[in-house]
Design brief:
By secondary structure, the protein is of the alpha/beta class. It has 18 helices and 13 strands.
Length: 563
């Protein structure tokens, strides 16, 4: 079995004494953040008891799932201190005494922050992320670090989701078997866990909720695949200071929870009180609501009269971009059934459905105006072969990763992206580059000064095609409150724009693999949620719509194999 990160968190490894649950039998299993808030307020459970129950679940299931890179060895002491504050009538905020986990690219000063990379094994940064400070001020117990795809999946294109050199493979709790197919039987799960963030531990109640990050789908996809609510906020609503970057043009952090209400609580707790952060100049684009209380927008009747657009081209129906012969996008037969039902639910609860709601950049006849023809440059699109893709991500990785390393001062384990690549090459026996490192290689070939003009042109084109001629055009032309997106399919559109999305568990489709699974291997179905997408700073509206849809359907089910 692959070694675990130093400080890994089985309760017995830490020597943490455990206590029994409260006499009244409150259980953390599938308990939402509002339910935990209520139980704490009523004295039905203490924060120390919450921590101990979560530790027991980690001890019981972690080796099967690979969800956790570290647990805070001070968690029990912190919980006891917060229990004493509660007894004295001092509540820090809405998360007082509630254990929350962080993706392991988010800085803490009491646990390592590794990004899953061998070069950063055991590394404790000299400062905490701004959102971590905000969560602690709201009373959260920063309890654990979740696994992730190494360096947020900007190492190698062929790296499986939630694989990193320190922890190995993360498993989907809804189908925890390994892939049996030739060429795929290296230990990876047969059912993908999703993007570089992990929903594994949140889905199986290892903690109350978690914080993920997204650059291109890395929060919404794992939320979908592990049947969670995932909220990717407007770029600039939350600080990214103290988060290992890919590109500050698209990086964001957001909550992953079991309910929309939980996501609303976490979003408010993550936001800076003044709505600004001197260490992240993007912060301040959105004004926080009074008291940073997003739960005020949770309205079960929010669908009544809401105008919701159905962007048929690409998201629902295949479309052939100009100059190409093959169509792109569209839904499978099973996915179409799910989305037709979702639209019927919206209509039943009073929503005005605008169908179709055209996104101009998805149907443009001029190739220069067609967003489907201008994706992100990946490993094969190296210098000289990257004319028809956006260099924003590979350029940003060179610029922003090196800037992050500089922020660590003398404590930085490596001084540059170039040095990280050299370290990985020198340590193949530690699986530092089991799947190669072509994404790091082709980011490092970028020259931040020489390539700046190309980067700026691509960034401007990204924004034009996803904002002005994309989301905003569709919303404004049809006077819409939101677009309804199947599953996580809108990730490039919203992420390039820096606009918010929230995904809600709803349906499922048969697990599809190429090549197919062996005869007799009956895989569990794959989750298929629905996402609401809006313009900048529309989180209050999206939370209301998502909450109303969730309450009207209540489709989420916990993973049955991990009671």
């Amino acid at each position: 079995m692959r070694r675990l990160l130093l400080g890994f968190s089985l309760a017995v490894a830490f020597g943490m004494p455990l206590v029994h649950a409260a006499d009244n039998g409150f259980s953390v299993v599938d308990a939402s953040i509002p339910e935990i808030q209520e139980a704490l307020a009523e004295g039905r459970v203490s924060s120390r008891q919450l921590v101990d129950q979560y530790l027991q679940r980690i001890a019981r299931y972690e080796l099967q799932l690979g969800a956790t890179l570290a647990v805070n060895q001070q968690a029990q002491a912190i919980a006891e201190r917060l229990d004493e504050e509660r007894k004295a009538g001092r509540l820090r905020g809405p998360l007082h005494g509630i254990p929350i986990a962080l993706k392991d690219n988010i800085h803490t000063t009491d646990m390592p922050t590794t990004g899953g990379a061998v070069a950063f094994e055991g590394y404790v940064p000299p400062y905490a992320a701004t959102i971590v400070n905000n969560l602690e001020e709201a009373g959260a117990i920063i309890f654990a670090k979740t696994t992730l795809t190494e360096l947020a999946n900007w190492v190698a294109t062929g790296m499986p989701d939630n694989y990193n050199a320190l922890r190995g493979y993360g498993m989907n709790p809804y189908e925890p078997r390994r892939d049996p197919r030739d060429g795929f039987n290296d230990g990876r799960p047969v059912m993908s866990t999703g993007g570089s963030s992990s929903g594994i531990g949140t889905a199986v109640s290892f903690w109350a909720g978690s914080i993920g990050t997204q650059t291109s789908g890395s929060l919404l996809i794992p939320s979908n695949n592990t049947r969670l609510v995932g909220l990717d906020p407007t770029l600039g609503r939350l600080s990214r200071h103290g988060i290992i970057p890919i590109t500050m043009d698209q990086d964001s952090a957001g909550p992953m929870t079991r309910t929309v209400a939980g996501a609303a609580v976490l979003l408010g707790a993550m936001e800076s009180p003044a709505g600004a952060d001197p260490n992240d100049p993007a912060v301040g684009v959105c004004e926080p609501p009074p008291g940073r209380d997003y739960t005020a927008f949770l309205d079960a009747g929010a669908l009544d009269g809401a105008r919701i657009g159905i962007p048929r081209a690409y998201y629902y129906e295949p479309v052939t971009p100009p100059g190409e012969e093959a169509a792109r996008g569209g839904l499978s037969k099973d996915a179409r059934v799910v989305m037709d039902e979702a639209i019927a639910v919206l209509r039943e609860h009073g929503a005005v459905i605008v169908d179709p709601a055209v996104i101009p950049s998805h149907v443009a006849d001029d190739p220069d105006d067609n967003q489907l023809l201008f994706g992100n440059c990946y490993d094969t699109q190296v210098r000289g072969q990257d004319r028809n893709c956006s260099v924003v991500m590979k350029y940003g990785m060179k610029r922003d990763f090196n800037a992050w390393l500089q922020s660590l001062g003398d404590t930085a384990p490596v001084p540059s992206l170039t040095a990280l690549r050299a370290f990985n090459t020198a340590h193949p026996q530690r699986d530092a580059i089991r799947y190669g490192q072509q994404e790091l290689d082709f980011s490092d070939e970028m020259d931040v000064a020489r390539d700046r003009a190309r980067y700026e042109a691509d960034r401007a084109r990204d924004l034009r095609l996803t904002r002005t001629e994309g989301i905003d055009a569709a919303l404004q032309a049809n006077r819409l409150d939101a677009l309804l997106i199947p599953s996580w399919a809108g990730e490039q559109l919203a992420d390039k724009a820096g606009y918010p999305q929230i995904i809600v568990p709803f349906g499922s489709v048969p697990l599809s693999t190429t090549p197919p699974l062996p005869e007799g291997f009956e895989a569990a179905p794959m989750a298929f949620g629905v996402a609401f997408m809006g313009t900048a700073c529309s989180e209050p509206t999206l939370l209301g719509l998502a909450y109303a849809f969730e309450q009207a359907t209540l489709r989420r089910e916990p993973p049955a194999r991990f009671p």
